[in-house]
Amino acid sequence: MKGAVLYGPRDVRFEERPAPKITAPTDAIIRISATCVCGSDLWPYRGANKVEQPTPMGHEYCGIVEEVGSAVRSVRPGQFVIGSFFASDNSCPNCQIGYQSSCQHREFVGTAQAPVLRVPLADGTLVKTSDIPTNDLVPSLLALSDVMGTGWFAADAANVKPGSTVVVVGDGAVGLLGVLSAQQMGAERIIAMSRHDSRQKLATEFGATDIVTQRGEEGVARIKDLTDGVGADSVLECVGTRESMMQAIQSTRRGGYMSYVGVPHGVELQGEQLFYTHIHLHGGPAPVRRFLPELIERVYGGKINPGKVFDLELPLDQVAEGYRAMDERRAIKTLLRPS
Ligand SMILES: [Zn+2]
Predict the structure, then answer these.
(1) Dist. CA 130 → ligand 1 center (Å)
(2) What's the pTM?
(3) Tell me, what's the pLDDT at 273?
(4) 3-state DSSP helix/strand/coil % of the chain, to nearest 5
C-alpha cells in the first residue's frame, strides 16, 4: 500500500507503507473513500513543528468498513463510516459529557492519507450513515471528520444563539465552516475577518453578513465600529497565533464568549489583561464525535454543504501537490481520492 509520509519541511512523499491490520479486537479496518490535507498538517510541513522521523500523515477520513475485530458490535463490513482524529471509547467520564477528544483512552488517528486505515476503538469512534452515500455527498461527509466538526464546536463553545452577533477570526476552512455553523445556529450577524477574495465569497455564501479586511488593532477597531462600540457576543478564533488570539479577545464584548480551536503556536496570555475582559473562554481540540450524528443528518437533509471548502481535488498519489497548493494559498483545502 502507498500513502503520504512527511520527511521534513516541504517534503511529502507518496511511498510504500505497511498495510494496516487488526491489532486489537476493538479495531476496524476501513477502505478510504476520501481523505484530505488539514491546515494543521501545514505546521509540520512548514517546519513550525520539527519532524523527527518520516511520519505518515492524515487524520480526516471516511470510507467503507472492510474488516472488524472480534469485539466490535456497532459497525460491520460494507457500511460507510465517518470517524475523527481522536479515537475514543465514547463511554468514559470525559466522553459521557461530550469531550471525546479528551477520552481517557483516546488514540490519535494519524495515517489517513492512504487507501486503507486502521481505526482503534471502532465502536466508540465510527458513526455509520444510513446507506452508502452518492459520490457528490462524500466531500461534505468527509468535511465532518474534522473541519466542519471543529467549526461547529467553535460556534457551540462560543455560545452562538439565535440573534447573536458573531465574529469569526480566520478564513481557513475551519473559519469558513465556523461561519456556516453560526448561520445554522441562528446568528443574526456574522462578521468574517478575511483579506482574500475567494474566501470572502465563500464566507458570504455560508452566511457572513459583513466582511472585515483589517487585522490587529485596526481589525478590532472595525469590529467595535460595527457593534456600537460593544464588541461581539460570540467570537470564534480559528487560527492559533498570538495575533489572532488577541484580536479575538479584544473583539469580544464584556460577558461574551470566545472560543479557540486553532492549535496554538506561540500564544501567551497575560493574566491581568484577561482578568479585566470579563469574557468566557472555551476551546481545545474539537470533540467532533459529539456532533457527528447531527451533522450527518444535516448533510443528508441538504441543510449544509460543507464540502464546498474543498476547492482542489486530486488523486491520492498527487498528495505532495495537495500540500503545496495549500501552503502557497492556491487552495483553501485539498481533497484526495485513492485511485
Ligand atoms: Zn472516553
Answers:
(1) 25
(2) 0.97
(3) 87
(4) 35, 25, 40
Neighbours of ion ligand 1 (CB under 5 A): 88-89, 92, 95, 103
pLDDT at 263 over 90: no
Short-list 198, 208, 279, 291, CA closest to 245 = 279
Alpha-helix residue ranges (DSSP H) falling in 11-101: 42-45, 93-96
> What are the structural domains of the chain?
2-146+287-337 (3.90.180.10), 148-283 (3.40.50.720)
pLDDT in tens, 269-321: 999 989 999 999 999 999 999 999 999 999 999 999 999 999 999 999 999 99
Q: Find the 102 Cα to ligand 1 centroid distance in Å.
A: 7
CA distance 133 to 301: 12
Q: What residues have CB less than 8 Å from 11, skipping those under 6 apart? A: none
How many C-beta atoms surround the C-beta of residue 9 within 10 A? 12
Residue with cell 476520501: 34
Q: How far is CA 250 from the centre of its chain?
A: 24
H helix runs in 10-146, sequence order? 42-45, 93-96, 122-125, 138-144
Neighbour tally for 261: CB within 10 Å: 27
- What are the cell numbers at 236? 470564534
Q: What is the pLDDT of residues 83-142, one digit of tens each?
A: 999 999 999 999 999 999 999 999 999 999 999 999 999 999 999 999 999 999 999 999
Strands 55-56 and 61-68: unpaired
Centre of ligand 1 to C-alpha 95, Å, is 4
Rounded-to-integer distance, Cα 282 and Cα 234, Å? 11
The stretch 233-256 carries a mean pLDDT of 96
Q: Are 316 and 115 in contact (CB under 8 A)?
A: yes
